[in-house]
From TrEMBL:
This is L-cystine import ATP-binding protein TcyC. The keyword Nucleotide-binding applies. It comes from Halomonas chromatireducens. One of its GO terms (cellular component) is plasma membrane. It comes from the Bacteria. Its EC number is 3.6.3.-. Keywords: ATP-binding, Hydrolase, Nucleotide-binding, Transport. The lineage of its organism: Bacteria, Pseudomonadati, Pseudomonadota, Gammaproteobacteria, Oceanospirillales. The gene is tcyC. The keyword Metal-binding does not apply.
Length: 257
């Protein structure tokens, strides 16, 4: 039994016309952890995420969620199980307010079932729940602000709120601090720490300072394969990781430490 792992991959492989983008990856994500997937550009991180969230079918291998194979399931089916990927900003409606966006997310159908907010609860309940989610991500004061008018970092927080609306057990975050200034990064780090309470988070993240502050476990990918795994101290001291990151973030991190 491997109950302690909420998500596992076994021999996960993706080939694009003979090019192996993901090569025999065995990933084990422990329940309750914040787990990062890192690696240099082109390492296969996004492809792994796309395989996990059913945007792509694997060429070989298996994906298990709580010990059950989800390899052949569709995106909406795994969302119903609680495995939810944070939506990109493009999926947030620019000309709706923050509150309206969260309400839409709460009413989003997942497969054949609807969130219970949709049918049985009154609009007031829906508003209360949406406000509660905005509050959780520190956006209460932005409730009536049009999304298009919100600063970038706040839009990313809104994206987290719309993901929370799907009631994830395992939340997949795709580069949550990408393109952010230091102040927004700090805010998002704190936000992820908050929302990770009582759930598992798997994130692709380039910012190694964020990874070192947040993550319990890190898997390093290089050329599609797992290069190293462990806590930040262990993987950042690994010579293979240093070599893969030559001239990039790990060295810069150390220089600024
Ligand atoms: N649809 C596709 N068709 C062909 N090759 C692809 C496709 N998607 C990804 N690749 C290739 O697979 C490799 C891994 O790409 P991927 O985007 O998963 O890496 P990544 O680690 O997310 O990189 P980055 O950090 O730059 O986002 C790259 O060489 C990429 O060119």
């Amino acid at each position: 039994m491997t109950q302690e792992f909420i998500l596992e991959t076994r021999g996960l492989t993706k080939q694009f016309r003979g090019f192996t983008a993901v090569d025999d990856v065995n990933l084990q994500v422990r329940e309750g952890h914040i787990h990062a997937l890192i690696g240099p550009n082109g390492a296969g991180k996004t492809t792994v995420f796309n395989l996990l969230t059913k945007f792509l079918p694997p060429t070989h291998g298996e994906i298990l969620y709580r010990d059950k194979s989800i390899t052949k399931m569709k995106a909406n089916e795994i969302a119903r199980l609680g495995l939810v990927r944070s939506f990109q900003i493009s999926a947030v409606f620019a000309h709706m307010t923050a509150l309206e966006n969260v309400r839409v997310a709460l009413q989003r159908p997942i497969g054949t079932s609807f969130h219970f907010w949709k049918s049985e609860r009154t609009l007031d309940h829906l508003n209360d729940r949406a406000m509660d989610l905005l509050d959780q991500v520190g956006l209460a004061e932005y409730a009536d602000v049009l999304t298009v008018e919100m600063p970038y970092g706040r839009k990313r927080a809104l994206e987290v709120a719309t993901t929370l609306a799907m009631e994830p057990t395992l939340m997949l975050l795709d580069e949550p601090t990408q393109g952010m200034g230091a102040e927004d990064v700090d805010r998002i780090v704190e936000l992820i720490r908050q929302v990770a309470k009582g759930r598992t988070v798997l994130m692709v993240e380039h910012n190694l300072s964020v990874v070192s502050r947040l993550c319990d476990r890190i898997t390093v990918l290089a050329r599609g394969a797992v290069l190293a795994e462990g806590d930040y101290k262990t993987v950042s001291a690994n010579p293979l990781v240093k070599e893969a990151y030559m001239g990039t973030e790990v060295e810069e991190e150390e220089a600024s430490a």
